[in-house]
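Issue: ligand-bound run for DP6 - logging full I/O for the record.

Environment: standard queue, default settings, no custom constraints.

Inputs:
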Amino acid sequence: MLSPQITVRAHTNIALVKYWGKENQDLIIPMNGSLSLTLDHFYTDTSVQFDSNLKNDIFSLNGNIQNNLQVSKFLDIVRKKANIKLFARIDSVNHVPSTAGLASSASAYAALAAAASKAAGLNLNRQDLSKLARKGSGSACRSIYGGFVEWVKGYDDDSSYAVPIEEELDWEIGMLVAMVNRNEKKVSSRAGMQGVVETSPFYSAWVKSVNNDLINIKDAIKKRDFKLIGEITESNALRMHSLNLSATPHFNYFEPMSLEIMQAVEKIREEQNILCYYTLDAGPNVKILCQQKDAAIIKNELSQKFSNIEFEFAKPGPGIKYLNK
Ligand code: DP6
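Outputs:
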């Protein structure tokens, strides 16, 4: 028996207000809500087909067979929900620029959740897809939707999911991504955030501050106040990274080049009066939130200063799409 082969495209998202810590590690319930922007430039295409002839799941990423237990564990959730026992063939292709180092669990699990559930015969709505994707990787629950997306914290499996804040953005903004390093992260986000929850003396202050960030950034989005959105984004990222510095053992994701780019962004902002703000996730790449009209000037300025670094501009992107019927 062969299920239909379903192919889904999901775009990655970058959090402006970060998720950094779990209240429940099995279900991936976060300690706080978060808010992101989905990007058009970086995405994953994933096809899933269940097949009664298979003896185990076969997962290929960019054409190479992987031994990935996490993917099979995730498919177990789908199999249980659909009440099937078949294994699947999963083909995933990450569309990121060759040197991006942005291989993202967010687009990966959003695409996998949508493709696998449909191939298994489940007809989940987007809210249920968001809950399912969350169990693969927390940030994936936001990649179900396009534009600005909030992950509502919730308190159990059923109440923790993403909601679109503004999917079709009629706003010319985007992110300039500085590809500082494409190597594997030193500390995975999963291990990093757990260490912080358990040991940072600043953790409760972080959670409190994020709740304010969320209220203020949603208000700023509504009012189209780009400056305020940028200020909240940059400050929130620095607070997240200060948790890492305050953990035991301490760790950080910065490379010297990340810090230099951060300083250069501040300088462009101060000296040229251009609104641009940086954010970083569990790696050294710097993402610069800016308005599309300023992207070329900022890119030009930074490329001159950092001639070894590639910069890619990404506009807001859409939610998941089924690529076949
Ligand atoms: C820094 O979603 O990768 O990008 O739920 O353990 O898979 P798991 O973590 P993951 O963490 C993302 C952390 C972040 C911030 C964010 O995207 O909100």
